[in-house]
Design a protein that fits this description.
It holds the Pfam family 7tm_1. By secondary structure, the chain is an all-alpha fold. The chain contains 12 helices and 2 strands, in the order H-H-H-H-H-H-H-H-H-H-H-H-E-E. Strands 1-2 form a two-stranded antiparallel ribbon. Strand 1 and strand 2 form a beta hairpin.
Length: 340
C-alpha cells in the first residue's frame, strides 16, 4: 500500500515528463521546421532593418524591437527541441529550466507589447489624426523601447524565484504561501498579457474600420493600409496567442479537479498550442510589410529575383505609396498614416 502511495506521489511530482512521447517527438520536428524557416528569415529581416532600411532614421524603432524579440525566440527553439526529443517538457537542470521560462516570458511579453504599440499608433493617426499623442512622440525615442523592456522584467520575476517549480501550478502539490503567491502571479500575468492587449486590439480595429467607412474614396487607400496593419496583428494574436491562453485555462481547470487522465490530454494540447505560438516569429514579417512599405521595398530589392522585384514593386506603387531613395541605395516609401 505504501509502495503504491509512493508511486502515486512520484507520478504527481514527475509532472515534467512527457505524457506521450509520440506527441512530443512530432512537436520537436515542428519546432525544427520553425527554426529552419525562422532563423534565415529573422536574420534577413535584421540585416534589412540595420544595413538597408536604417530603422533609426525611419521611425521604425518599435518594429526593430519586435525583430529582436522574434530572433531571441528562434534562438531558444533548439533547446526546446532537445528536451522534447528526450521525452521531457523541460530541462532537469533548474537553472536552465528557469532561464528558458524567463526568456520565453520576456520575449512573448515584448512581442505583444510592441505589436500593441504599433496598433495604437495606427489608431491615433487614423481616428485622432492631427492631435498630439504619446505613441507618436515615443516612437521617435529609442529610450522608450529600453523602458518597455525594463518594465517587462518584473513580470518575468516569478520564473526566477527560488520556490518556483518550473512546471508546477495550482492544484499540483500542497504549496507554501510564497509558492502559491508566485504561481498565482505567474498565471495572472500569463492571461493579462494576452487578454488585455487583445481587447485593445479589437477596439482599435473596430474604430479604424468605422473611420474607413466614413471617409471619401480618395482617402481610403491610406486607411486600408492601417486596417491591414491592425488585421495582421489580429491574425498573429488569433493564431499564436489566444489558443494557448484558452488551452492554459482548460489545463488549470482540469488540474484543480485532479483528473489525471484528462490532464495528460490537456497538457499535450497546451504544449502543442504553445509550439504553434512560436510561429509568431514567422508571421511578424507580414506586420513589418503592412506597417512600412519602405521596409517591404528594401527587402524585395535585396532578396527577391529581378523579375519578381518588378512585379512586386509595381504592385506596391499601384497602391498609392510614395517612393523615396534611402542612403543605402534601396527604394523606401514613407507611410502617410505614420509620417505627418
Amino acid at each position: 500500500m505504501s509502495s503504491q502511495q509512493n508511486m502515486s506521489t512520484d507520478r504527481m511530482l514527475d509532472h515534467c515528463k512527457a505524457p506521450n512521447n509520440g506527441t512530443y517527438q512530432a512537436l520537436s520536428y515542428l519546432m525544427i521546421g520553425e527554426f529552419v524557416l525562422g532563423l534565415p528569415l529573422n536574420l534577413s529581416v535584421l540585416y534589412i532593418f540595420v544595413f538597408r532600411f536604417k530603422f533609426w532614421k525611419n521611425k521604425s524603432i518599435f518594429l526593430f524591437n519586435i525583430v529582436v524579440a522574434d530572433f531571441l525566440l528562434v534562438a531558444l527553439l533548439p533547446v526546446k527541441v532537445y528536451h522534447y526529443q528526450h521525452g521531457v517538457r523541460r530541462s532537469d537542470n533548474d537553472v536552465v529550466c528557469k532561464m528558458m521560462l524567463f526568456m520565453l516570458f520576456l520575449n512573448r511579453g515584448a512581442s505583444i507589447a510592441f505589436l500593441i504599440i504599433l496598433s495604437l499608433d495606427r489608431y491615433f493617426n487614423v481616428v485622432h489624426l492631427g492631435r498630439r499623442n504619446c505613441v507618436n512622440v515615443f516612437k521617435k525615442s529609442p529610450q522608450i523601447s529600453v523602458i518597455v523592456w525594463l518594465l517587462l522584467l518584473p513580470l518575468t520575476i516569478p520564473t526566477m524565484v527560488k520556490t518556483f517549480e518550473c512546471c508546477n501550478s495550482h492544484g499540483r502539490v500542497k504549496e507554501t504561501y510564497a509558492h502559491d503567491v508566485t504561481d498565482t502571479f505567474r498565471e495572472v500575468v500569463f492571461f493579462i498579457q494576452i487578454i488585455i492587449p487583445f481587447i485593445i486590439l479589437v477596439y482599435c480595429t473596430v474604430r479604424i474600420v468605422s473611420r474607413l467607412k466614413k471617409k471619401t474614396v480618395g482617402e481610403k487607400t491610406k486607411l486600408r493600409r492601417a486596417v491591414c496593419v491592425v488585421m495582421s496583428v489580429v491574425v498573429v494574436f488569433a493564431i499564436c496567442f489566444l489558443p494557448c491562453a484558452i488551452a492554459r485555462a482548460v489545463l488549470l481547470g482540469v488540474r484543480l479537479q485532479n483528473m489525471q487522465g484528462a490532464e495528460d490530454i490537456a497538457v499535450q494540447v497546451y504544449d502543442s498550442l504553445m509550439v504553434l505560438s512560436y510561429t509568431d516569429c514567422l508571421l511578424d514579417p507580414l506586420v513589418y510589410c503592412f506597417c512600412n512599405s519602405g521596409f517591404k521595398d528594401a527587402y524585395i530589392s535585396t532578396f527577391c529575383p529581378t523579375f519578381l522585384q518588378k512585379k512586386l514593386l509595381t504592385y506596391d506603387s499601384g497602391m498609392g505609396t510614395k517612393a523615396t531613395t534611402t542612403t543605402s541605395g534601396g527604394r523606401t516609401n514613407s507611410v502617410p498614416i505614420i509620417e505627418k
